[in-house]
Write a structure and sequence with these properties.
heterodimer, A: alpha/beta, TIM Barrel, two-stranded antiparallel sheet, 13 strands, 13% strand, B: 211 residues, Rossmann fold, 7-stranded mixed beta sheet, 7 helices, 7 strands, 19% strand, flavoprotein (chain B), FMN (chain B)
C-alpha cells in the first residue's frame, strides 16, 4: 500500500498571527513538504492544479520536474490534473516528459475542477464538465498509446498525423487515477479503462466515498478488469496530530475555525464526527485510518492532507515526522496483514513495464518530407 | 385503514410560538379530517429552530449533518406536509427558506402541502399568496387552495381562537386530507429518498459515443 500527502497549494493567512505567506514562501513550502515526505519514508507526493488565487500550483509538471531532480524514491503525482480545461495534447507531452525526467516515478489523477470561472478562461464551459472529461481523456490515451494520431472531436481542433513527443518512457504511459466526489460517470470512466479511482474523502461524510467506491468496484468487474475487490482505489484523508490528543485539538482549532471551505460553520468536534477529519493522537489517526477499510475494502493508496488552512511549514513538517515515525509504519503493517493475496498493489511504472512484456524504446523518428523515409532507414541502406 | 405520515414544519423562534400554535391547530384538524376519511396518521414535527445551526453549516459545508438529514428525511418522506412560518420583513423567515434551499430540487415534487403563516398584524395576510405559493410552485409541491394566515388578533376569540380562523383551519385541513387520501402512501422516512444518482448512470460506451 502506498502512503503520501496531497496538497491544495492554498495561500491562506495563519489565523493565529494573521500572517499570510508570500507565493514564494508557499511554493518553497510545497517543495520542503515533498522532500520531507521522502525523508520520512512516505511514498507519494501529489500537488493540486489551480489557476486562480489564493492557490499557487498552476504549473504542476514544473514543480514535479524540480522535485524529480531532488528526490530518489518519491512517486510524483497530481490531485488533480484538470482534464477539462487543459489541452490533452499538452498533458500528454508534459507528463511523458516528466516520466522521462523522473525515471518513471510519475502517475497522475484526472479531475474536472469545480471552479466555474476557470473554464471560460481556457475556452470551456463548466456545464460540459463530464463530456470534456470523457473526450479529452479518450484523446490523451490515444496520444500516449498510438504513435500517430488522426483525431477529431467536439472540444479541440482536429489532429492529422500527430505524434505526441516524447513518447512515454519505455513505451508505457503513466498510470492514471480519476478523482471525483460524487459524479458516478467519473467512477464509470475509471472502471471502463481499468484505471484507478480516487476519492478525496475530506470535507464530506464518508457515505459519499463509500457509494462511489462501491459503484467503481462493481463497474470495474463489469468491464472485465478483474474482480471488484481487485479494483485500484485511493483515498484522501485529513489529519492533525500531537502526542496528546487534547494538544492536537487545542492547536488545530483556530486553523479549523477559519479554514477555507468549512470554516465559520460546524465545530471541530462536529466535523470530525461527520467527516473523515481526525484531530488527535497518532494512535487515534491509526485507528480511524484502519477503519476506512471497513467501508471501501482493501485499497491501494492513502494520501493525507496536512498543509491546509494556513498551518505554518514548521508545523506541517512536524506532522510529516509523526506520520513517518508513528503512523505509516503501523498502517503498512496492519493493512498488509489484512489484505488478501489476490488484491493487487497500485501499479508502479516497473509493474506496468513488466505487464507490457518488456521496456521498449518508443521513439518515433521523423520522416523525410520528400522521400517519406526516416533517418534510420536511410542510414541502414 | 391505512396509516399516513404527516410532517409538520414550524419555523417559529420563540417558546411558546404562535407559529407552532398554528401548526398544532392545523395538525390536529388534519389528523381528524384524515380519520373522518378512514385513514390513520403518524405525525412528525420538525422545529426548524433546533436546526438553525445545522442549516447554516449545510450552506457552508454542502452537506446535511446527521440531525438535519433526519429532519430532511422526515419532510421528504411524508405523505403530506404542513409548513408554517412567521412573517419576517414581508415574507417567510430566512430560516424557513434555508430549509427549502438545501433540499434536493425534486424532493417535494407532488407532495401535498398546507401553507400557514403568522404575523403580529393582519396587514401581512397575503404573504401566503405572494411569497409562499411561488416557493412551493417552484418546488412543484401541491399547495392546497386554502392557506391559513393568523395575526395576533385571531388568537383572541372564544376558546383561544377566532371563529373565522377556526373555519379556515377546518377547510384547509379537509383540503389537505383529500389530497393525501387520493394518493398512494409513501411509507414515511425510509420510503422516499431523493432520486438515486447511481440508478441509471449511462454505460461508458454510451458516454463515449461519437468520440
Amino acid at each position: 500500500m502506498q502512503f503520501g500527502v496531497f496538497t491544495v497549494g492554498d495561500v491562506t493567512p495563519d489565523p493565529t498571527n494573521g500572517r499570510t505567506p508570500t507565493e514564494a514562501e508557499r511554493i518553497q513550502a510545497m517543495v520542503a513538504i515533498a522532500l520531507k515526505a521522502e525523508e520520512v519514508g512516505l511514498d507519494v507526493f501529489a500537488t493540486g492544479e489551480h489557476h486562480n488565487p489564493p492557490f499557487v500550483p498552476s504549473s504542476p509538471t514544473t514543480m514535479l520536474g524540480y522535485l524529480a531532480a531532488r528526490t530518489q524514491r518519491l512517486l510524483l503525482s497530481t490531485s488533480t490534473t484538470l482534464i477539462t480545461t487543459n489541452d490533452p495534447v499538452k498533458i500528454a507531452e508534459d507528463y511523458a516528459m516528466l516520466q522521462h525526467l523522473a525515471g518513471g516515478r510519475v502517475d497522475l489523477m484526472m479531475g474536472r475542477g469545480n471552479t466555474g470561472p476557470v473554464y471560460p478562461w481556457f475556452g470551456q464551459d463548466i456545464r460540459n464538465g463530464i463530456p470534456l472529461a470523457v473526450e479529452n481523456y479518450a484523446l490523451l490515451r490515444r496520444l500516449w498509446t498510438e504513435d500517430v494520431v488522426d483525431w477529431s472531436g467536439q472540444y479541440r481542433t482536429p489532429l492529422q498525423g500527430f505524434t505526441s513527443t516524447p513518447r512515454p518512457l519505455d513505451g508505457v504511459a503513466p498510470f492514471v487515477w480519476h478523482g471525483s466526489i460524487r459524479s458516478p460517470q467519473i467512477a464509470e470512466q475509471a472502471a471502463y479503462y481499468g484505471d484507478g479511482f480516487f476519492h478525496n474523502h475530506i470535507f464530506w461524510p464518508k457515505e459519499h466515498t463509500e457509494r462511489m467506491v462501491e459503484f467503481y468496484r462493481r463497474r470495474y468487474e463489469h468491464h472485465g478488469h478483474g474482480t471488484a475487490d481487485q479494483a485500484i482505489v485511493g483515498l484522501g484523508g485529513q489529519v492533525f496530530m500531537r502526542a496528546n490528543s487534547q494538544d492536537a485539538v487545542r492547536e488545530f482549532r483556530p486553523y479549523f475555525d477559519n479554514a477555507p471551505v468549512y470554516g465559520h460553520g460546524p465545530s471541530l468536534e462536529e466535523f470530525t464526527r461527520e467527516t473523515p477529519l481526525t484531530v488527535g493522537s497518532p494512535q487515534q489517526v491509526v485507528e480511524r485510518t484502519l477503519g476506512f477499510r471497513d467501508y471501501v475494502g482493501d485499497y491501494q493508496r492513502q494520501l493525507f492532507l496536512v498543509d491546509h488552512a494556513g498551518l505554518p511549514l514548521k508545523t506541517v513538517l512536524e506532522q510529516l515526522d509523526i506520520l513517518g515515525e508513528e503512523v505509516v509504519p503501523v498502517l503498512r503493517r496492519e493493512f498488509a496483514a489484512l489484505k488478501p493475496a489476490h488484491v493487487p498493489e497500485a501499479p508502479t511504472h516497473a509493474d506496468r513495464v513488466v505487464a507490457r512484456g518488456a521496456a521498449a524504446d518508443a521513439t518515433v523518428h521523423a520522416t523525410d518530407d520528400v522521400t517519406g523515409r526516416t533517418a534510420e532507414e536511410v542510414s541502414a541502406r | 385503514m391505512s396509516t399516513r405520515t404527516l410532517a409538520v414544519l414550524s419555523a417559529g423562534l420563540s417558546t411558546p410560538s404562535s407559529t407552532r400554535l398554528l401548526a398544532d391547530r392545523l395538525t390536529t384538524a388534519t389528523v381528524a379530517a384524515l380519520r373522518a376519511r378512514g385513514e390513520d396518521a403518524t405525525v412528525e414535527v420538525v422545529e426548524l429552530r433546533a436546526h438553525a445551526r445545522d442549516l447554516a453549516d449545510h450552506l457552508l459545508t454542502g452537506f446535511a449533518n446527521t440531525a438535519l438529514q433526519a429532519a430532511v428525511d422526515t419532510v421528504v418522506g411524508a405523505d403530506g406536509l404542513i409548513a408554517v412560518t412567521p412573517v419576517f420583513s414581508a415574507s417567510y423567515s430566512g430560516l424557513f427558506k434555508t430549509f427549502f434551499d438545501v433540499l434536493d430540487k425534486d424532493a417535494l415534487t407532488g407532495t401535498p402541502v398546507l401553507l400557514g403563516a403568522t404575523a403580529g398584524t393582519a396587514r401581512h395576510s397575503l404573504v401566503i399568496e405572494h411569497a409562499m405559493r411561488p416557493l412551493f410552485a417552484h418546488l412543484r409541491a401541491v399547495a392546497v387552495p386554502t392557506g391559513v394566515f393568523a395575526a395576533s388578533e385571531d388568537w383572541a376569540g372564544a376558546g383561544g381562537v377566532d371563529q373565522q380562523l377556526a373555519g379556515r383551519i377546518e377547510r384547509a385541513a379537509g383540503e389537505l386530507a383529500d389530497l393525501v387520501t387520493g394518493r398512494p402512501a409513501r411509507g414515511g422516512r425510509a420510503g422516499r429518498r431523493p432520486a438515486d444518482p447511481f440508478a441509471d448512470v449511462p454505460s461508458f460506451e454510451d458516454l463515449l459515443k461519437g468520440r
